[in-house]
Amino acid sequence: MRKAILAATMMALTLPATVAVSAPAEARDRGHRYYKTDNGIRYWRGNDGRYRCKKSNGTTGLLIGGVAGALAGRAIDTRGDRTVGTLLGAAGGAVLGREIDRGGSSARCR
């Protein structure tokens, strides 16, 4: 169990660093022109005339928060096999990590 948690932690930490940051598929595939707002948010106009921008959906925070919460829950729960503490910590950490990741992005394109 310890090796599985360590492997999941390492994967959650290295995966975001290895993913190439690129333009969203819709903008990249159709050759849209990018614009930039005063506060640095990049956006483009779609074929339907609506403005589009990339906003964090919280997946990275969900994964990292889940792993960190599982480790913290396992450390706090010292009785028995510690499964309940691990699961509750993972759920709480995932929710908290997702909200932190989504709340930090200020892109508001509509």
From TrEMBL:
Alphabetic keyword roster: Lipoprotein, Signal
The Glycine zipper 2TM domain, residue ranges: 61-100
Cleaved signal peptide residues: 1-19
Membrane topology summary: Lipid-anchor
Keyword Lipoprotein set for record: yes
Location of the protein in the cell: Cell outer membrane
Signal found in the keyword field: yes
Family to which the UniProt record says this protein belongs: Belongs to the rickettsiale 17 kDa surface antigen family.
Name recorded for this polypeptide: 17 kDa surface antigen
Species this chain originates from: Novosphingobium soli
